[in-house]
Write a structure and sequence with these properties.
The chain has 264 residues and is α+β, with helices and mostly antiparallel strands. The chain has one domain: 4-Layer Sandwich (Phosphatase 2c, domain 1). Helix content is 31%, strand content 28%. It is built from seven helices and eleven strands. A six-stranded antiparallel sheet has the order 1-2-11-10-7-8. A five-stranded antiparallel sheet has the order 3-4-5-6-9, covered by helices on one side. Helix 1 packs antiparallel against helix 2. The longest helix has 23 residues. It is globular, with a radius of gyration of 18 Å. The two termini are 20 Å apart.
Length: 264
């Protein structure tokens, strides 16, 4: 998909796959270039409840971002943080509202009790040449610039926390028995802490949003190499899915690619 404005052309692709070990796909994703919104949500809970959580989270976010386009934060049900930019406040508010909606469903329907979802989102402001990212859990955002891939998000997981403290090594983290234990998710409680940041956009920047079905199966170096070698985003998405499945496909795999091209 391609969309243009005065400054930028955005090329996008999104793909989700059940993987090889799961009976159904609990991931959800949303690619809405007119809103500048891109979201990957990795549901959990089993018995299709994870799918309900991830889908509800995205639907809630899209509804809020659409209604908040006028920038009137005074009407938002979530207070603004003066330390954050308008775009950062908008994205954080969207995720907090989504969390409340997932919690509400979990409380109203016994079959959904205990469901939740991780989530990573990117909101673009091409007029300001910035990309704002927010996440909860271990779904990730990467940026490829000048052929080099960089992880921009910090996993909310037990293993990542131990890794950052120097208690375990990167090699131990890859195969640790608790590597799937997350410390933050939507749906656990009515208030959730959201990590948010904004980065400047440069010509040819490629952003990758993904669930851990990709990042947990494919090393960063392999994803970086695929991104360097495959310019077509639809083909790149398919090759990344194939790489995760070739590595075992132990989880649902979802990803969104967004490339920014400066108009001349």
């Amino acid at each position: 998909m391609k969309i243009e404005n005065q400054q930028w052309t955005l090329q996008t692709a999104g793909l989700s796959d059940r993987g090889l070990r799961r009976s159904h796909n609990e991931d959800s994703l949303s690619v809405i270039p007119p809103l500048g919104l891109f979201v990957v949500a990795d549901g959990m809970g089993g018995h299709n409840a994870g799918e309900v959580a991830s889908r509800q989270a995205i639907e809630s976010m899209v509804t809020f971002i659409h209604s908040a386009r006028d920038g009137n934060s005074a009407s938002w049900p979530v207070p603004s943080d003066p330390k954050l930019s308008p775009q950062e406040n908008k994205l954080v508010a969207a995720i907090k509202i989504a969390n409340r909606d997932v919690c509400r469903l979990s409380m109203e329907y016994p079959e959904y009790q205990g469901m939740g979802t991780t989530l990573v989102a990117l909101l673009t402001d091409p007029e300001d040449s910035t990309a704002t990212m927010a996440h909860v859990g271990d779904s990730r955002c990467y940026r490829v610039r000048d052929g080099k891939m960089e992880k921009l998000t910090f996993d909310h997981s037990w293993v990542e926390e131990q890794l950052q403290r120097g208690i375990i090594t990167p090699q131990e983290a890859r195969s640790h028995r608790w590597k799937n234990v997350i410390t933050r998710a939507l749906g656990n409680k009515l208030e959730v802490e959201v990590d948010v940041q904004s980065v400047p956009i440069e010509d040819q920047d490629l952003f990758l949003l993904c669930s851990d079905g990709l990042s947990g199966m494919v090393e960063n170096e392999e994803m970086e190499q695929l991104a360097r070698e495959e310019p077509d985003l639809e083909d790149l998405a398919r090759k990344m899915i194939a790489a995760a499945n070739n590595a075992g496909g132990q989880d649902n795999i979802s990803l969104i690619l967004i490339r920014f091209l400066r108009n001349t």
